[in-house]
Amino acid sequence: MPPCPSTPILTERRVRDVLFVVGEASGDLHAGKVVEALHASWDADAVPASQRARLRGVGGQHMARAGVEIIEPVEHLAVMGFVEVLQHVPKHWALLRRLKREMASGQVGLVVLLDYPGFNLKVAAAAKAAGIPVLYYITPQVWAWGADRLPRIAQVVSKAACILPFEETLLRQHGVDATFVGHPLLDRAQHLPSREEACAQLGLDPARPVLAVFPGSRRAEIARHLTPFVEAAQQVQAQRPEVQVVVGVAPTVSIDQAQCPFPLVSGQGFVVQRAATAGLLKSGTNTLEAAVAGLPHVIGYMTNPLTYRIARRVVKIPHIGLVNVVAGREVSKEFVQQDFVPARVASALLPLLDVQSAARRTALEGLSVVRGALGAPGASARVAGMMRSMLEHHT
């Protein structure tokens, strides 16, 4: 007797979606690398297309190129600072409602969150309520501020992939299933050019010192940092006219050449850092990039005055630069808010531009320790492996 038409002859395993949520350009970059590693893993194991999860989410060009269907551009979310975030609250709530509808559909088998904790912990809670496992990559910096989030993270995050060495221990102490996967910038730094090669790419004279200036990766950072950073570089040149200055520009922003008398180089951060003798950097991940590149540097940072006053009350660590946080001491001098005086910054930079100075040797030794603490290359592949394991256990 032929089977009833309503009775399936063959039932295939149901493969559900992976929903990514990132909040800014760096998250988009790191998520894109994870997706590339995920596809490579599937290819290596000859996983058929029918058994591969559909990848969707909030992201940008890197994720899109890697094969993620973008349901909301990351540019609509990127914002920083306590005061600045308030202006974007309605937009965030609207997106959260949309993501809750996605998760309620029954089509999502895994939620992958990157950084952006103010919003992403709400997404994690919604996923938990919907019975969907959550992988949090680049976890909230609870070691700096917001330690009261730790119980919440333990409640709503299934697994955490940490990129700083001390985060795994801290999170595990508070009940989070955390794994240190190494820092993803190491994946991008496996084949760095020599100083001579980098100078040749940028048209710089390798026989003369080079000062690299990195004012930030957001429009608000450029607005606050560019002029004082340029003034500090000009004061360096006033004392050492042979110094070449080049400005590293993040691909997420643009700088008006009329506001900057120095050459602008977009999207080649490691090349600029390898060419440079010393750097003036905005605090953040680029200080860790400088550690990997072996670039002694000074850190500067300015923000909205109210945001800064709030931050001083809630931030519980003595340093703002990530390179100093990882080292547990001041490897690179910091000039924050009103302490950023161009003349003082220039005085701190000048010894680093002297290849024979004791200050430069000490800085290089500290940066080498930091680089060693960041783990080994392969973070993206490790996170992709965690994703596959979670998908297989939940599907």
What can you tell me about this protein's structure?
The protein is of the alpha/beta class and 395 residues long. It has two domains: 189 residues, 3-Layer(aba) Sandwich (Rossmann fold), CATH 3.40.50; 183 residues, Rossmann fold. Helices cover 45% and strands 15% of the residues. The protein has 17 helices and 13 strands. The strands form two sheets. Strands 3-2-1-4-5-6-7 form a seven-stranded parallel β-sheet, sandwiched between helices. Strands 10-9-8-11-12-13 form a six-stranded parallel β-sheet, sandwiched between helices. The radius of gyration is 23 Å and the shape is elongated.
What CATH architecture of the largest domain would you give? 3-Layer(aba) Sandwich
Largest sheet: 7 strands, parallel
- Count every helix, treating DSSP H or I runs of 4 or more residues as helices: 17
Roughly how much helix do the residues carry, as a percent range?
Answer: 40-55%
Strand percentage: 15-25%
CATH secondary-structure class of the largest domain: Alpha Beta
Oligomeric state of shown chains: single chain
Number of strands: 13
| CATH topology annotation of the largest domain | Rossmann fold
Mean pLDDT across every amino acid position:
89
SS-based class: alpha/beta
Distance between the termini: 33 Å
Strand and helix map with partners:
Elements (H helix, E strand, L loop, with lengths): L16 E6 L2 H20 L10 E5 L1 H6 L2 E5 L8 H5 L2 H16 L3 E7 L2 H13 L4 E4 L12 H7 L2 E4 L4 H7 L4 E3 L4 H4 L6 H8 L7 E5 L4 H21 L4 E6 L14 E3 L2 H7 L2 E5 L2 H9 L3 E5 L3 H10 L7 H6 L6 E3 L5 H8 L8 H16 L5 H16 L1
Parallel strand pairs: 1-2, 1-4, 2-3, 4-5, 5-6, 6-7, 8-9, 8-11, 9-10, 11-12, 12-13
Helix pairs in contact: 1-17, 4-5, 5-6, 9-11, 10-15, 11-12, 12-16
